[in-house]
């Protein structure tokens, strides 16, 4: 799974807020091991968010296994400096259905971010 | 011809390209490899080897990995 994170982007020393995760089809040639957001659907989601006064905070994708950390492929192919790349992996037990971690692409590396769930 | 190029999330600029320029060449003129962007006209991707006919083009940096 993969998609666009919608919400509010903040100044670098403040927290971004994600209010919606919009799924986008994965059009990678081998979707079992790679992801690529469908460009047409991605652009439609971005334009809809901006029309509603929201920001694109970043993007999310899942890894079927392994730690919720960017892969070498993720590093090689990252193209949105300053934006959040969120990675979801299956949890390790029944109490943890999945694990979510977030990273900001600096243009050279992924910096780990703190993910906090806040009630409305 | 002059083409207005919007790079999603970055901004837009107007570039002068040859009349027979391709969308791949337009992407390069905007500073991007054709392999790292999708070129869209009116919200629909266009072939990178197609000749530029649109006066306004959107470049979407690809979001991909594995």
From TrEMBL, chain B:
- Entry-linked InterPro entries: Mopterin_synth/thiamin_S_b, SAM_domain_containing, SAMP2, SAMP2_halobacteria
Short name of one Pfam family for this protein?
SAMP2
Superkingdom as given in the UniProt entry: Archaea
By what name is this protein known? Ubiquitin-like small modifier protein 2
Taxonomic placement: Archaea, Methanobacteriati, Methanobacteriota, Stenosarchaea group, Halobacteria
């Amino acid at each position: 799974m993969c998609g666009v994170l919608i919400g509010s982007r903040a100044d670098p020393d403040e927290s971004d807020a994600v209010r919606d995760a919009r799924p986008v089809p994965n059009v990678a040639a081998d979707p079992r091991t790679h992801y690529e957001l469908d460009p047409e659907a991605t652009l439609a989601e971005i334009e809809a968010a901006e029309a509603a006064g929201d920001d694109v905070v970043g993007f999310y994708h899942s890894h079927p296994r392994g730690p919720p950390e960017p892969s070498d492929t993720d590093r090689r192919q990252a193209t949105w400096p300053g934006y959040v790349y969120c990675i979801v992996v299956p949890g390790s037990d029944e109490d943890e259905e999945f694990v979510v971690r977030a990273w900001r692409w600096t243009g050279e590396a992924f910096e780990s971010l703190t993910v906090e769930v806040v009630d409305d | 011809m002059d083409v207005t190029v919007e790079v999603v999330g970055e901004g837009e600029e107007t570039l002068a390209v040859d009349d027979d320029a391709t969308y791949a060449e337009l992407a390069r003129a905007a500073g991007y490899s054709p392999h790292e962007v999708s070129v869209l006209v009116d919200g629909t991707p266009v072939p990178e080897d197609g000749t530029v006919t649109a006066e306004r083009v959107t470049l979407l940096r690809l979001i991909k990995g594995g």
